[in-house]
Design goal:
Layout lengths: L13 H19 L11 E6 L5 H12 L3 E5 L12 H11 L2 E5 L3 H9 L5 E5 L5 H15 L6 E5 L4 H13 L2 E5 L8 H7 L3 E4 L2 H5 L4 E4 L11 H8 L6 H5 L6 E4 L21 H26 L1
Parallel strand pairs: 1-2, 1-3, 3-4, 5-6, 5-8, 6-7, 8-9
Amino acid sequence: MSARHFLSLMDCTPQELNSLVRRGIELKDLRERGVLFEPLKNRVLGMIFEKASTRTRLSFEAGMIQLGGQAIFLSPRDTQLGRGEPISDSAIVMSRMLDAVMIRTFAHSTLTDFAANSSVPVINGLSDDLHPCQLMADMQTFHEHRGSIAGKTVAWIGDGNNMCNTYIEAAIQFDFQLKVACPEGYEPDAELMARAGDRVQVMRDPRAAAAGAHLISTDVWASMGQEDEAAARLATFRPYQVDRALLDCAADNVLFMHCLPAHRGEEISHDLLDDPRSVAWDQAENRLHVQKALLEFLVEPAYHHA
């Protein structure tokens, strides 16, 4: 199985990731100028969703169409996946009919099992562990507004969840310092922390994390699948709300990002997305552009070398 997969930011070199960011910016420019660019004509992306989605589905589906290809939406309710067919069997069959597969799932092992048995590229559209496509959009957004993120300081405020884990990978691959402010017991993955070494610090005080930060990012306090913990989390995370005053503690040119959907009045103040320092709408749009760069990168060579 020689297909290139994108399950984590560690699946690419730092050079490849940076060129994907630059390519995302180029593809965005082409679209804004109305230039038709269809390198993936007749290519088909299968999209498997075990979790609900707005941005991931729209960006991959629209992206494939804009690149001249097609995308097929598959939910476990409508396929044998939800009825006990082994992931490995599904992967073998589906990859014989498709040119790439995007999976949004709970267990990260679903992705690794599928990829191990797939003859075409597999893309992580979000798992409980990681969300690499979102981080690529974040990196493109920072690059557009502020240039290279290398050597800069990023603050993650809130839950040490899949987004936080992926920010740790990004700190390694894009060469920035990461300060994570989270409540006790909600730290990011210990193994990833160890791999990042002194690039990443965990602290309890959001103001300390925000001090001098060039980028502040957060996410909802209860992710999909944690709804039963929501009330308890609300109390625990209350001191971790990002508001304008917290942005005022950061660098003068700080940017604020949120991968959305946002719960206003919880992890962010009601007015934060209206603050001029927030680039959350650009960030959401850039999912489309950087994923088109990723699809082009993964699917085109596979096609040419077939």
